[in-house]
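Work Package 4 report. The design task specified in the project plan requires that, given a folded chain encoded as structure tokens, an amino acid be chosen for each position. We show below one input record used in the internal validation round.
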């Protein structure tokens, strides 16, 4: 079981725009990485079928698979964890709980609810939210200090930006696809 101490450093996040390359991207990820399956664009039968296919690849490569959905659905689908807004992480199950946060108040909620990891975003400008305001490295670090669990940098991230940020845990959609 993945814990705060063994939380992967590198995370691939699924999206409609990187769907076609996910199998290849999963095979390129180092063993022990993480994969967050979102795929909100698919209808339920297609979404679960796609999850099962990608989860098989991920598990065979030793990649932790987390589902962006309810804790109950994550348990039913056999995901290793659940991802979402802090309030969506309940009820507590035996799997990893990753909170998506963008502000101090959301970090506080994730701390209160005992999230195992926080994805803090957007660090840099991102294609997901064109023209949206990003945190930037300084604000990211100031907010990250308030988290009680490990923080995963998200938003415009790729290997070069992770190195520039000097942050060991990071996630990407385009930057790893």
């Amino acid at each position: 079981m993945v814990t705060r101490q063994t939380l992967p450093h590198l995370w691939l996040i699924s999206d409609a725009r990187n769907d076609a390359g996910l199998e290849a991207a999963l095979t390129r990820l180092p063993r022990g990485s993480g994969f967050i399956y979102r795929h909100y664009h698919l209808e339920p039968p297609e979404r679960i079928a796609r999850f099962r296919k990608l989860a098989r690849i991920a598990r065979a490569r030793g990649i932790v698979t987390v589902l962006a959905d309810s804790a109950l659905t994550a348990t039913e689908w056999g995901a290793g964890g659940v991802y979402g807004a802090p309030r969506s992480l309940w009820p507590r199950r035996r799997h990893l709980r990753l909170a998506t946060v963008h502000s101090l108040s959301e970090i506080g909620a994730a701390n209160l609810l005992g999230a195992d990891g926080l994805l803090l975003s957007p660090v840099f400008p991102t294609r997901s939210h064109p023209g949206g305001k990003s945190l930037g490295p300084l604000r990211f670090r100031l907010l990250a200090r308030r988290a009680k669990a490990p923080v995963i940098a998200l938003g415009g991230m790729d290997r070069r930006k992770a190195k520039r940020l000097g942050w060991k845990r990071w996630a990407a959609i385009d930057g790893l696809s």
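The mean pLDDT is 92. Validation will be extended to a larger panel in the next phase.
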